[in-house]
Amino acid sequence: MSGLQPDHLPRKLWWILAGLTLAWGFNWTAMKVSLSEVAPWTFRSLCLGLGSAVLFMVLRAGGQSLAVPKGQRLRLAMLAFFNITCWNLLVAFGLLSIPSGRAAILAYMMPAWAIPLSMWLLHERITGRKLAGLVLGMAGLVILLGDGVMALGSAPLGSLLVLGASFSWALGTVLQKRFPMTMPAGPYTAWIMLLGGVPIFIGALLLDDFRSLGAIGFWPALGIAYNVLIAFAWAHWAWIKIATAVPVSVFSLSMLIIPVVGVISGMLFLGERPTWAEYAALGLVLASLFAVVIPARQAR
Predict the structure, then answer these.
(1) Contact 242, 16 (CB under 8 A)
(2) 51 neighbors 193 (Cβ within 8 angstroms)
(3) Structural contact between residues 181 and 240, judged by C-beta atoms closer than 8 angstroms
(4) Angle at 103 between CA 136 and CA 275, to 5 degrees
(5) φ, ψ for residue 256 (rounded to 5)?
(6) 88 touches 44 (CB < 8 A)
(7) Does the N terminus or the C terminus of the chain have fewer Cβ atoms within 10 A?
(8) Pairwise CA distance, residues 92 & 90, whole Å
């Protein structure tokens, strides 16, 4: 967590980024399907509670220490609040009123918040490659949004909730670099999922009727299982693995391919049809990704 970090995504992390892209990209469809029959508080409680339980069991079976370093518990709670509690609640409630593809696009406006925050709080320098990557990626997302005014106007609350989630994630990612935890990625991931889920568990107990879970269909149940095992237990570890290894600007731009997968997932599983906008955005986002994945040529 200390020392000089690479100004691009190292090759050893490419496979983690590829897996994370698929896991979180297809998860937007899985969430939309699950939320059609499961209340947001209950859905997120299942994801975070069971997801953290699976990760804790895997770590314990592997002999890893689960201890939280002394003097860092308050820091852990703060990081869990911004990265887990706010993100999960805002996205879940936002998805109730807007399409999954649009939600994915709005959520991954995160670099627009994260890069200025990293320059302010972390004093990260913005290189020409990063700036080009940001411009290309944001252009791709704007194309996918289509008429931005219409997107916000058709369901203002849902869109604003997801935009709020993107800001919370950006702030949490920057704070994660500003106040790093001195513990491995695995235990840290399990703990922030559990602690971040506590307010959500309480909300579910107070507001939801768990008896309705006995009537959910096969596909919503499968969506929950996908969230628990893939999108939470594994993908959250992968996210932290990348986010703590590279600068915030590199990490946030690397995530821009995920909403493209989210849009494609909606086309495949929810019956949406591709348009020129999806193809144009895909090209721009891929170009943005290359700007931070491929290292710059070193001068001889």
Answers:
(1) yes
(2) yes
(3) no
(4) 60
(5) -70, -20
(6) yes
(7) C
(8) 6
How many CB atoms are located within 10 Å of the residue 112 CB?
A: 18
Relative orientation angle of helices 235-243 and 156-178, to the nearest 10 degrees:
50
How many other CB atoms sit within 10 Å of the CB of residue 221? Answer: 15
Q: How far apart are CA 167 and CA 109, in angstroms?
A: 8
- Pull the structure tokens for residue 258: 């995920």
Place of tokens 């997120």: 44
Give me the residue label for tokens 């080009």: 132
First to last CA, the chain: 29
Q: Which candidate, 90, 69, 237, 282, places its Cα nearest to that of 170? A: 90
CA 7 to CA 247: how far, in whole Å?
Answer: 7
CA distance 241 to 45: 24
Full 3-state SS string of the chain: CCCCCCCCCCHHHHHHHHHHHHHHHHHHHHHHHHHCCCCHHHHHHHHHHHHHHHHHHHHHHCCCCCCCCCCCHHHHHHHHHHHHHHHHHHHHHHCCCCCHHHHHHHHCCHHHHHHHHHHHHCCCCCCHHHHHHHHHHHHHHHHHHCCHHHHHHHCHHHHHHHHHHHHHHHHHHHHHHHCCCCCCHHHHHHHHHHHHHHHHHHHHHHHCCHHHHHHCCHHHHHHHHHHHHHHHHHHHHHHHHHHCCCCHHHHHHHCCHHHHHHHHHHHHHHCCCCCHHHHHHHHHHHHHHHHHHCCCCCCC
pLDDT digits (tens, 9 = 90+) for 168-222: 999 999 999 999 999 999 999 999 999 999 999 999 999 999 988 988 999 999 9
Place of tokens 């990293």: 118
Digit-coded pLDDT (tens) for 53-94: 999 999 999 999 999 999 999 999 999 999 999 999 999 999
Tokens 């020409």 -> residue: 128
Tokens of 84: 């887990």
